[in-house]
């Protein structure tokens, strides 16, 4: 018999709708019952692609005896962390404060008013590896709540005081100067793995925001080590098992330090951010492998995560047929059967062996030469065979923030490569987001089965505005700038706190939680604060909105010194600092959108890595609400380029070669 989750749209919640646990979704009904019956709340937070969430569900939430204990002593609430990042952020910080670590599934016990007093992550059904059995935890917490209420309430009071303190105390210092960026690089460099690329040891996560910072550092300073750190990391990831060598796209992270064995879930946000990182690196160094990976990643998203309406789905599960990674693995016998005489060469290049490299099967990764050619010959047969397997489950909710990240990646690729098909893909995504998930400048967080979900968060507003700004640069349609303006105005109105000089992650009219979340640090995705500062600075400069620029500067002044001290937590903010301190390269093109002369000038811009560019184009500068274009016209009736940097402008030119020389002189400086 289904529980209360059956009416939800979240695939993660629906996976638990048939549990014998009397689950509630987060909401007033559950909280009121906890208050009325004076019961503690058992809050379980996870997400659809999470392997260990599925394990705990099978072991505990589907077990009648465990469910009976949960139902007898607690009001049980299940939350999809992707749909409610506000709840995840608050209670993850609490669990980290209690235990020193965190992760999913997350299990937190709350007073009826929502204050946490005990928590952890995965609990096994029987005691093992030093972890207590889940049923033992349930009975101990229930007994403490019933018989030692004073201790429980003191613990909750201490946790509330902990949560009331800022997660990252600001270090309001002097106006940011370029040496902050140099200090950030010096702080970052010692943690770099010079052998395998990336930062830190196992488990090892892709950190595309840091790659962005490293590429920018090389452009700003010419530092060859910064470029080597970025490109070596990208090459090692692309050769590893973390990259799906056959179908394209990246898995979530590697459980080892060498990028071989992934945690096999595939997330939209990882692939959006990494597609951009590889595209930027291709522009910077012109390595064709970087372009291949960027395009294969976008193609993976289009093939496997594109909704019919134009949105992008959230993720693919790590598991299929009850095994982690089963969909992606091959045995040596399978390769021989599928590839025949090509099998030996393929096995030699992609490390396929009889014993395998993962539980008797092989994770494809590159250990030999000519991997591209070998895979091109084998791909049709291997893909056909893989498509006959049971596919991993797909989380088919559309999240605004993650779609904004993907919109920017596709728009950037459309601009850089002059790809009309990618421009159409980006347009369809933008139209979906604005038609189905936006109302009067405010976004909804999620969409599924024709229903928009809860109110959006700062990251939703900022990421979608950022994607729309990049879409404008790809096709110069002013309707996308109109939408950017609307989203940014609502973002400042509803998320900005003038007195604190800071953004909150929830809007003013959001439901009241134990604390109002405010975390400016990057995690797997850029923080809402960093993305907001980024889009306000760039769009504010382009559109002449001085108030937006002032907001962004306040964020940089409040957090700049902290970002230099902890660069791994502020990669996106360091990119904003680079834009702010490095002065934008402003490029205005006056010419017919479809004209050959306009296209030739645009090609010079597309061919260069210009991370701090502001780009605008129109047939004429008259009557256009973009200061960069105002009072500018064509020379000799030809498309004309106007290039400025740091309040200094070059002579306008109709000659693509001259525009190229002007851009090269800027790069040389």
The share of residues in extended strands comes to 5-15%
- The share of residues in helices is 40-55%
Distance between the termini: 69 Å
The value of Rg in angstroms is: 26 Å
Instruction: Assign the structural class, choosing from mainly alpha, mainly beta, alpha/beta, alpha+beta, or little secondary structure.
Output: alpha+beta
Major sheet summary line:
5 strands, mixed
In DSSP terms, counting alpha (H) and pi (I) runs of 4 or more, how many helices? Answer: 24
Mean pLDDT: 94
Name the CATH architecture of the largest domain. Alpha/alpha barrel
Would you mind describing this structure in some detail?
The chain has 669 residues and is of the alpha+beta class. It folds into four domains: 4-164, Glutaredoxin (3-Layer(aba) Sandwich), CATH 3.40.30; 179-197 and 291-316 and 395-582, Glycosyltransferase (Alpha/alpha barrel), CATH 1.50.10; 326-391, no CATH class; 585-668, Glutaredoxin. Helix content is 49%, strand content 11%. It is built from 24 helices and 23 strands. Strands 1-3-2-4-5 form a five-stranded mixed β-sheet, with helices on both faces. A four-stranded mixed β-sheet has the order 21-20-22-23, sandwiched between helices. Strands 8-9-12 form a three-stranded antiparallel β-sheet. The longest helix is centred in the last third of the chain and has 20 residues, at 546-565. The protein is globular and about 85 Å long. The model has no long low-confidence stretch (mean pLDDT 94).
């Amino acid at each position: 018999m289904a529980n209360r989750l059956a009416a939800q749209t979240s695939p993660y919640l629906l996976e638990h709708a048939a549990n014998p646990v009397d689950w509630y979704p987060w909401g007033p009904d559950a909280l009121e019952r906890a208050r009325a019956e004076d019961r503690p709340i058992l809050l379980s937070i996870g997400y659809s692609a999470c392997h260990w969430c599925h394990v705990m569900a099978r072991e505990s939430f589907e077990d009648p005896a465990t469910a009976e204990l949960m139902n007898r002593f607690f009001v049980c609430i299940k939350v999809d962390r992707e749909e409610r990042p506000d709840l995840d952020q608050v209670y993850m910080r609490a669990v980290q404060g209690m235990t020193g670590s965190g992760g999913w599934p997350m299990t937190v016990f709350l007073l009826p008013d929502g204050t946490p007093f005990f928590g952890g992550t995965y609990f096994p059904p029987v005691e093992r590896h030093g972890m207590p059995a889940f049923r033992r935890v349930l009975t101990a917490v229930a007994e403490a709540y019933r018989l030692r209420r004073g201790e429980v309430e003191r613990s909750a009071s201490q946790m509330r005081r902990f949560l009331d303190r800022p997660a990252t105390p600001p270090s309001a210092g002097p106006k940011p100067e370029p040496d902050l960026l140099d200090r950030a690089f010096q702080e970052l460099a010692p943690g770099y793995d010079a052998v395998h690329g990336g930062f830190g040891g196992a488990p090892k996560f892709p950190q595309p925001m840091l790659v962005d910072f490293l590429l920018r550092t090389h452009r700003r300073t010419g530092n060859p080590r910064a470029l080597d750190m970025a490109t070596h990391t990208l090459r090692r990831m692309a050769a590893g098992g973390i990259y799906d060598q056959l179908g394209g796209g990246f898995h979530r992270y590697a459980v080892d330090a060498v990028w071989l064995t992934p945690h096999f879930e595939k997330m939209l946000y990882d692939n959006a951010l990494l597609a951009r990182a590889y595209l930027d690196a291709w522009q910077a160094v012109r390595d064709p492998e970087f372009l291949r990976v960027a395009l294969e990643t976008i193609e993976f998203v289009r093939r496997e995560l594109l909704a019919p309406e134009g949105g992008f789905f959230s993720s693919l599960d790590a598991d299929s047929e009850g095994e982690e990674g089963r969909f992606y693995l091959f045995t040596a016998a399978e390769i021989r059967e599928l590839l025949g005489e090509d099998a030996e060469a393929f096995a030699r290049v992609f490390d396929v062996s009889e014993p395998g490299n993962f539980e008797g099967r092989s994770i494809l990764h590159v250990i030999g030469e000519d991997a591209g050619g070998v895979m091109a010959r084998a791909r049709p047969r291997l893909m056909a065979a893989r498509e006959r397997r049971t596919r991993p489950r797909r989380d088919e909710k559309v999240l605004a923030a993650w779609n904004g990240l993907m919109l920017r990646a596709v728009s950037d690729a459309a601009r850089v490569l002059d790809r009309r098909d990618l421009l159409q893909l980006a347009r369809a995504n933008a139209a979906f987001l604005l038609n189905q998930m936006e109302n009067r400048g405010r976004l909804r967080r999620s969409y599924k089965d024709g229903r928009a979900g809860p109110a959006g968060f700062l990251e939703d507003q900022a990421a979608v505005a950022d994607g729309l700004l990049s879409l404008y640069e790809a096709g110069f349609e002013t309707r996308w700038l109109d939408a950017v303006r609307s989203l940014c105005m609502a973002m400042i109105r509803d998320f900005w706190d003038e007195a604190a000089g800071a953004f909150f992650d929830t809007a003013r009219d959001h439901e009241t939680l134990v604390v109002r979340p405010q975390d400016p640090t990057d995690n797997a995705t850029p923080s809402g604060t960093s993305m907001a500062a980024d889009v306000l600075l760039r769009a504010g400069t382009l559109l002449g909105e001085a108030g937006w620029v002032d907001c962004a500067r306040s964020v940089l002044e409040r957090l700049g010194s902290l970002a230099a001290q902890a660069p791994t937590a502020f990669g996106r903010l360091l990119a904003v600092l680079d834009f702010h301190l490095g002065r934008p390269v402003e490029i205005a093109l006056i010419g017919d959108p479809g004209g050959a002369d306009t296209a030739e000038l645009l090609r010079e811009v597309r061919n260069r890595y210009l991370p701090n560019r502001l780009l605008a184009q129109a047939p004429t500068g008259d009557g256009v609400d973009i200061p960069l274009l105002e009072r500018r016209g064509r020379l000799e009736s030809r498309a004309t380029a106007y290039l400025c940097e740091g309040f200094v402008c070059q002579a306008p030119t109709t000659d693509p070669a001259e525009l190229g020389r002007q851009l090269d002189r800027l790069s040389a400086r």
